[in-house]
Write a structure and sequence with these properties.
Elements: E1 5-15, H1 18-29, E2 35-38, E3 42-43, E4 48-50, H2 52-56, E5 64-74, E6 80-90, E7 97-105, H3 109-127, H4 134-137, E8 138-139, E9 144-147, E10 150-162, E11 169-179
Parallel strand pairs: 1-4, 2-5
Antiparallel strand pairs: 1-11, 3-7, 5-11, 6-7, 6-10, 8-9, 9-10
GO molecular function, one term: arginine decarboxylase activity
Family: Belongs to the pyruvoyl-dependent arginine decarboxylase family.
Catalytic activity: L-arginine + H(+) = agmatine + CO2
């Protein structure tokens, strides 16, 4: 059971009930009709990252789907929440990469996304037994991490939201959905 494809998705939901706000976030992300099983953070060897629109075509209602999920909620008016999934994919596609989950308060989408990418790159670096300093490894022009002369592609999917002014639950999710077909 090694996934062949992955796609990123994200969503936000607001409701007076926390569970319903989560359900609405799943609907917004396009994955509410599936039974999600949360898994840890490995990007499978030789897996392909595909667009959300393409990935959703592989899903069926009621299907058990494995996913890496970041989730955050608030009912505090005007509080900024974010959920982010970062990925670090090694150049050698036969090697596995990493996915990271990050959930934060007070961070913009950009801040949360960059942090999630750094987490994934750091986890990958430790498997390569390489010292990693995200500030020194970032190449702004090419937007890639360089880890011990190995080029690593990083990306993220992030959803932020501002807590509802009336105190409704506001939930954000970001997810990496694993596809086996």
């Amino acid at each position: 059971m090694v996934p062949k494809r992955l796609f990123f998705t994200r969503g936000v939901g607001k409701h007076k009930e926390r569970l319903t706000s989560f359900e609405l976030a799943l609907r917004d992300a396009g994955i509410a009709a599936q039974n999600l099983v949360r898994v840890s953070s490995i990007f499978p060897p030789n897996a392909k990252l595909i667009p959300r629109k393409e990935g959703l075509k592989y899903l069926s209602p009621g299907e058990v789907v494995f996913a890496v999920v970041a989730e955050n909620s608030t009912r505090e008016p005007h509080r900024l929440v974010a959920s982010s999934i970062g990925v670090a994919i090694p150049t050698d596609r036969a090697m596995y990469g990493y996915l990271s989950e990050h959930h934060s308060f007070g961070e913009t989408e950009e801040q949360a996304g960059e942090y999630a990418e750094e987490l994934a790159a750091e986890m990958l670096a430790t498997t390569l037994d390489v010292d990693f300093d995200p500030d020194k490894s970032w190449d702004e022009k090419k937007e890639i991490y360089r880890i011990s002369n190995k080029i690593v592609r990083t990306a993220n999917v992030t959803q932020s939201a501002i807590g509802d002014k009336r105190g409704l639950w506001t939930t954000t999710i970001a997810a990496a959905i694993l596809i086996f077909e």
